[in-house]
Amino acid sequence: LETYSKFARADKLKVPFSIFNSHLAAVRYWLARTLEAQGKSDEKKLQQKKMIEELPFEFYAITSRNEFGLPLKEMFREASQPLAPRMTGLGDAGRWHLARAEKLIAAGFSDAGVKELNLISGGENDLQFLFYLSRLYAFAGDFKKSMKLAWDILDKNHQGSDKFITTELGKALFPKVFMEKVETLAGKYKLDAFLILSLIRQESAFNSGATSSANAVGLMQLLPTTAGQVARSLHQPSPDSEQLKDPDVNLLLGIDYLKGILSAFNNNIVFALAAYNAGSHKVKEWIDLRADLDPVEFI
User: Using CA atoms, how far apart are residues 31 and 20, in angstroms rounded to an integer?
Assistant: First the structure.
């Protein structure tokens, strides 16, 4: 940890090093687990509490919060997120692109509006302006960029005194896109709508037209072959790649597929999500190798 901290403060790094979203949380967590295995429970708890304090939004910090019985709702605060539609120093070109983007998005030409937003440079440290840009990207349907800007704001806030997520920033980080459609299907399949929404957020960032390098398509990133198998089991015609970009088609087949995987792994969410991404056969191999590990070790 001492070596890591020195590295983090090194002046010769070409890129500013942010301890946020770094490996330090993992270092602290597994050091804590090692201390626990050595019977040093007090030292173990100390490491975890340091991690929760220093890196509150990391996966390992949230895992530790659960272990200590600290409710996640304490990470959120009913406070407004400051927003500024303009910033000083943006320049004539930046103001021009911003004005064009606003008008295009308002008129329904979202793709063209996003192109204009992408041409705006500067303002990385103006958090109020960044939040306005995040909102504009969300209005235009580019939730990947919107969430990225919201995460940048959280990063910079965390480096100051804020150790919480405002309600509005939380909504930008975890948008409830397609929620009504998802809730309807989740009820039919007796699944948690937020589990499905989380999967969509990670797989496609709510981009219904997303196509991966492996040719996975749509909101839930289905391979056409997989989608065809699921469709036939539902006595429906196999969709092509373009049809899989239709949210109604993709959600139905993706949720049915997820339900099947969960059933195959006795509703173990860790195994099921791994299988959704890597395939059931591969996960069964991993289980054979690591059957005695707890969920975090398995991950």
Answer: 18
60-81 pLDDT, tens digit per residue, is: 999 999 999 999 888 888 888 8
71: left (phi over 0), alpha (psi -120 to 50) or beta: beta
For 64-96, b/e burial (b = at least 16 CB within 10 A) is bbeeeeeeeeebeeeeebeeeeebeebeeebee
Residue ranges with strand state E in 44-195: 76-77, 165-166
> Would you say 251 and 219 are in contact if contact means Cβ atoms under 8 Å apart?
yes
φ and ψ at residue 218, rounded to 5 degrees: 85, -170
Q: Is the pLDDT of residue 190 over 50?
A: yes
Tokens of 46: 């100390």
Nearest one of 136, 107, 141, 106 to 119, comparing CA atoms: 136
User: What is the 8-class DSSP label of residue 159?
Assistant: T
Reported as a pLDDT band with limits 50, 70 and 90, residue 291 is: confident
Say how many CA atoms lie within 13 Å of 262 toward its Cβ. Answer: 14
Catalytic residue among 124, 168, 203, 285: 203
Q: What is the distance between the alpha carbons of residues 26 and 59, in angstroms, rounded to a whole number?
A: 9
* 3-class state of residue 222 by DSSP: strand
- Counting DSSP H helices and E strands in the chain, the numbers are 16, 2
Residue closest to 85 by CA, chosen among 69, 71, 101: 101
- The answer to whether 189 and 255 have CB atoms below 8 angstroms apart is yes
- The pair of three-digit structure tokens given for residue 249, joined into one six-digit string: 């088609």
pLDDT averaged over every residue in the chain? 90
Residue 203 annotated among the catalytic residues of the structure: yes
Q: In this structure, are residues 294 and 278 in contact, taking their beta carbons and an 8 Å threshold?
A: no
For CA atoms 16, 17, 19, 25, the dihedral sign is positive
Half-sphere exposure of 228 (CA within 13 A, CB side): 7
